[in-house]
Amino acid sequence: REPKAAAECFAGALRIREATLGPTHTETARTRHCAALVDCALGQQPAAAQELEAAVNSLIRGLGARHPWSLQARADLESLHRVMATPRPTARASA
User: Fold this and answer.
1) Cα 91 to Cα 19: distance, rounded to the nearest angstrom
2) Is the Cβ–Cβ distance between 36 and 66 less than 8 Å?
3) Which of 25, 37, 78, 83 could disulfide-link to 21, CB 3.0 to 4.6 Å?
4) Half-sphere exposure in the Cβ direction for 27 (13 Å, CA)
5) φ, ψ for residue 77 (rounded to 5)?
6) Which pTM does this prediction carry?
7) How many of the other CB atoms lie within 10 Å of CB of 65?
8) Lowest-confidence range among 9-18, 19-28, 68-77, 82-91?
9) How far is CA 1 from CA 21, 36, 65, in A?
């Protein structure tokens, strides 16, 4: 229940930041980063990866590749790509 409510809040905040600051502003990117992490918690990894990629690009452009926010967003994106590349075990039907 909480991740879904958080996703709704972040979606609203992201719309406001995009409208007021622009889609590539660093504060918009931070909100996009947080929203993507919530998407991960909801099992929406492909959408989260796309949003994290956009956040990483905006943060690096605005703050530089060595800024802590850029580093964290990039680490989260790399971690998500590793998880997405790892096959998940399938459940076995009991006999």
Assistant:
1) 44
2) no
3) 25
4) 9
5) -65, -45
6) 0.85
7) 11
8) 82-91
9) 30, 17, 35
